[in-house]
Prior knowledge:
By secondary structure, the chain is of the alpha+beta class. It folds into 2 domains: 3-116, CATH 2.40.50; 152-259, CATH 3.30.1330.60. 13% of the residues lie in helices and 32% in strands. A 7-stranded mixed beta sheet has the order 2-6-7-5-4-3-8. β4 (42-47) and β5 form a beta hairpin.
Amino acid sequence: MSRGALAFGLLxxxxxxxxxxxxxxRNFVACPIVRDTASVPxxxxxYQGELYFLTLQADVSAPVNPPWLGHRVxxxxxxxxxxxxxxxxxxxxxxxxxxxxxxxxCNTMLPAEDRYNLTFDPPRPPGPSGGRLxxxxxxxxxxxxDVKREPKSFTMTYDFNGMVNFKTPFQLAPVLELAKAMSAxxxxxxxxxxxxxxxxxxxxxxxxxLAQRRxxxxxxxxxxxxxxxxAYEVRWVQExxxxxxxxxxxxxxxxxxxxx
Length: 260
């Protein structure tokens, strides 16, 4: 197992679980590779001698945010039958989690080649983002005109070992709007953490205190945004569910229930 994976999470014995059941699944930790093109750079990763396409270089409004050079990345994806992009097999869906610990060996940049020029437009024009990397990058939804006074659940999602990120305000906006519109009396917040089953049978565990930290952080953010009237019930599930290599990313979450 790589040094980056060891630093990324707590490692369980590889023999304790079976390898991921679906042969199309690709769950691994690797150095990302950036390939230049005439339009927009693309990100790749190599696993077991094969090159995989991860995503395009885009800002935080993109569904999949690119990894970083100088850091390994946890790739959780499924091999698709789509044509290769930038020379890599397309993973769809794919979830990327950057390893926080630096790795100086992750510095591969490939030059542009005519055969890999992309035939579609980049996500945004070249040049400065004009502030699109700020917290107002994504349109904030508003509460419906007719609010039903009944409990409603929301789910916050996270990268592996991650806390809030640039997409958090977009995810929290509906919670704020609904709670204010219905004059919520209570908000229940439950934090969760996960494990990740890699394709080689290795299991990575998120940090033991992460479920608590996620739940408490969401409560702090909601209060800080002015939602101070409701009573808060903040709890967390300490144990991560057994990983299956298929939907482990779904367990990296905080559940929020708004009650009238």
